[in-house]
Design goal:
This protein is an all-alpha fold and 111 residues long. It is rod-shaped and about 115 Å long. Helix content is 96%, strand content 0%. The relative contact order is 0.03. The chain has two helices and no strands. The protein has one domain. Helix 1 crosses helix 2.
Length: 111
């Protein structure tokens, strides 16, 4: 009788181990499937972020290009304005440049 109880305990332990292994394998499989889905989601997220970044860089490029054109136009207009006024008032231009040079010279000589 003692042997039959002992073999019954061993059988239930063995059955318990088999069930535990089976449950562990199923859970491991579920975790691996979850990781595969997570990897797919991360790839989709990375692609979406990449597309958004490319679109933003492209838009920034267009804005910078427009800003550069505007600055070139303004610089050209300013140069034309200065050239026109220097030609119409050469004495004043020489006096202004002499004064600016003296002021700059005094400021730099104090250092």
């Amino acid at each position: 009788m003692a042997q039959s109880m002992e073999s019954g305990v061993r059988g239930s332990r063995r059955n318990g181990h088999i069930q535990a292994r089976s449950a562990l394998k199923a859970r491991t499989s579920d975790v691996l499937d979850d990781f595969a889905e997570l990897r797919k989601d991360m790839n989709r997220l990375a692609e979406a972020a990449s597309k958004a970044a490319r679109a933003e860089v492209k838009g920034a490029g267009h804005r910078l290009e427009a800003l550069g054109k505007d600055m070139r136009t303004r610089a050209g207009d300013s140069a034309s304005y200065v050239t026109e006024h220097v030609r119409s008032h050469p004495g004043a231009a020489i006096g202004a440049s002499l004064g600016a040079g003296l002021l700059l010279g005094f400021l730099l000589s104090r250092r």
